[in-house]
Amino acid sequence: MGKSIPQYLGQLDIRKSVVSLATGAGAIYLLYKAIKAGIKCKPPLCTNSPICIARLAVERERHGRDSGELRRLLNSLECKQDEYAKSMILHSITRCVYLLEAEASACTTDDIVLLGYMLDDKDNSVKTQALNTLKAFSGIRKFRLKIQEHSIKVLELISTIWDTELHIAGLRLLNNLPLPDYVHPQLRRVMPALMEILQSDYILAQVQAVRLLSYLAQKNDLLYDILNCQVHSNFLNLLQPTQPGSLLYEVLVFAERLSEGRNAPHYRVVKWHYNEQSLHESLFGEESRLADRLLALVIHPEEDVQIQACKVIVSLQYPQDLRSRPSSCQPSRSYFKNTE
Predict the structure, then answer these.
(1) Which SS3 state, helix, strand or coil, does residue 268 take?
(2) I want to staple 217 with a disulfide (CB 3.0 to 4.6 A). Which of 44, 148, 257, 322 is the partner?
(3) Coil, strand or helix: which one is 297?
(4) Predicted TM-score of the model (pTM)
């Protein structure tokens, strides 16, 4: 009060100038902080971490240059390393094989032999990483036969070591290879272990185990061994609707293969005998509850499961040879004879 208008406006201009200066100083300070933080947060120079190695190697291959990283890693395996170092080196090799196709294809069977030696390591994590690396190399055609030579060793590891990660790695490798006939005797010996893995509570291992069993169920000389393999009394819990869809689907494929195999003409001409706790009795015996499980899965939310459940029902209704001749098709003894 009592101030003239010019005096009041002059004082207002001074205040504006002060605010402007303060705001400008604040902005400069914030800018300084941002630049400083940016300098501190700049990406580190490349280290020996697997991610950094992979980025460098991929960049080099993109420009048509061999990074040499895969060869360096393989050579380092021949040096004395502790278990952790070996495991990390194998992990990095696996990455490189998937990312650097040209460098991986340039490797030799001697490299596969070296990786095979790692399966005898005393540390399970090294064995597991070696299995993963062999799986990566198995995608390259020229190495498949050499990797096949390790099939018996892989089956031995799966059946003698109870380690979920090892089981998953080993089974993934086996599922990526055609298994030669000379492996069948070993497969018979490890059948109980495969069945135990299938009935475990580890979904990834279960899925890999049942995929392998489904493949083996198509081998005439192994079908009886699978069907007569002992299982737990609650085996059909694997077909509960609450199970993950991925597992349900694979178990249903397995059941269909078994059903088709046991109904094949060459199998039916022999009178087979099964033990009371066998897979055959659990699925196809007089007291089996398979029909109930299948009917519940026909209305499962996942379409793949629905369709596969219907396929199993059809395979139980009609033997394989009759299904190929629809004009003369007659229903066999069926678990669904009283069901629409």
Answers:
(1) helix
(2) 257
(3) helix
(4) 0.77
